Amino acid sequence: MTDLVSISATGLPGRFALAGVLSPADIHLARLLCRGCGESDERVELAAALTCRQVRLGSVQMDPTEIAAQITRQMLDPAVVASAGPEELAAIEVFRSLDWPDPTDWLARLEDSPAVAHRDSPVNRRGLRLDSGLVYLERYWQAEQQVALLTARLAADRPEISPATAQAALDTVAAALDGAGIVLDPAQAQAALRVCDRRLSVLAGGPGTGKTTAVCAVLAVLKAADPGLGPISLAAPSGKAAARLRDAVAEVGALLPPEVGPGPLEATTVHALLGSMGPGRGFRHDRNDPLPCSLVVIDETSMLSLPMTARLLEAVGPGTRVLLVGDPGQLVSVDAGSVLADVVASAPHLGPDVLPVTTLTRNHRSGGAIAELSEAVRRGRTDEVIRVLDAGDESVRFVAEDPAALSLADLPDVHAEITSLASRMTRLAGEQDDAGALELVDEHRLLCAHRQGPYGVSRWSEEMAAAERAGRASTDPSERARTRGEWSIGQPVIVNQNMRQLEVNNGDCGVVVAERPVPMVALPSPGGTSRRLPCSLVGSLRPLEALTVHKAQGSQFGRVTVVLPPPESPLLTRELLYTAITRARRRLVLVGTRESVVRAVSQTSRRQSGLTRRWRELGDLHQIPDTP
Predict the structure, then answer these.
(1) Which CATH superfamily is domain 162-365 in?
(2) Family per UniProt (predicted)?
(3) Known binding-site positions
């Protein structure tokens, strides 16, 4: 990276690159944004590069008055400095000597720059925009404006369903659910009424709080209150999450009488819902061609980026309702933005007229140590987290050691779990019991924060592969002669791209069930059945070994092993730990030092956005302006 930096950066931005603050891509894009407008001032180029850095790390804005202190906290964090090698220490010394621009002078220079548009300037004339003292890339400024305006406009629009009609529909649905043994709690009932009353509503809650039941109640109540209700669309950011939403809604809906239940519904990815025309080519549905449905339900909304949320809301036509569902404590999107977390955090201060949010808090599942641990993490209660981990409950095991110094053999219960599952899947696949083999695929996952290195997916996947081969060999001795690149009967696999023509989703997991005449994989089908496809036909099929926590988001597993990164890792946040823990249904093994656990609980994902400020401004207006 140093060679690339020395070639691409000089002067003030170059010093920041040598200090490890900026990447070559940050500097290259900043230079394009500035030079294309005739701007050569290094301070403006530095501001552009730092804004690119912010977006790369998930924030959508750069505050010139705060950025120096923010990056200093990150770079000179004692845990980071203590673990630094010679190259990192050299970069830290360069960082200590950096000469940051004076914030007042910096802002004045940005105000006068030909490369920077102002708040009221026309759109798409400049690559940078200065709004309320904050620097944005134009694309993200527009997305933030659109999300704020469109959510406010939708929330302010009241459909024509009277409160009496909505309450009567709720009473009918609640009675039907009660007959099926499901009692709606007050928050779930409020969510159903709110969707009748608003075109936009948000349903937030952690695992086990009854979000799926509430969604089914919403669908049934809306159907009863509005007999002319048109098509309903269910979607989620990932194919796996969409499939889980479809199956969960169908499971609860099947308990209701046909005249009350939502009926059979399909679910798709948000990209497919909007009619993605391919990378960089936009979407078929937009403000000129809105979605042809009466209600859109989006699950796992925490995974939606700011630009994707803007595209979704832009495609909502007149009369269409939107229900956003998710857990604000989970990991946010890979791309910039944290829309669901911003909405839920802002709602209490702005009121339901601006942001209609219903938060579910009652846990409808049996409690236990996993639920207790996840709640303590979500609330940031470090002492309580350590207490639960040290309690010795059979459902939560804490291996308080550095994972870099361990192998899978040092975790005998996890090793035995992996080999046993591999042996059982091999036997079932060999007996042509595809359904039985598939039932075991989601029994265990090993999750990491990092992709590479001693704490990462690549290293722990190798450990898992060896254990799985040993398990398969105990059932099929011919396994010992295979190389890792060959498909084996009973081998679990994962799909890494959506293939709509085959009804295969990114994240779908299956089992190799035949080798001849060609290797075949069994994959789940809607309704709990399975089907076989040639391995060669399924794009990006790879062995299912260790996964990142991000990749596992939207799924749950019987037992989960979590490998925590070291305390200095920037990925180690409360949201990561909470998401990892809540992937486990029955048993959790957490591998990491106490320092890593404490660091994770105390360090939240700090993504900077201006949504709260924009909603507050809009709340003071009597009329919502047009979107840019």
Answers:
(1) P-loop containing nucleotide triphosphate hydrolases (3.40.50.300)
(2) Belongs to the RecD family.
(3) 205-212
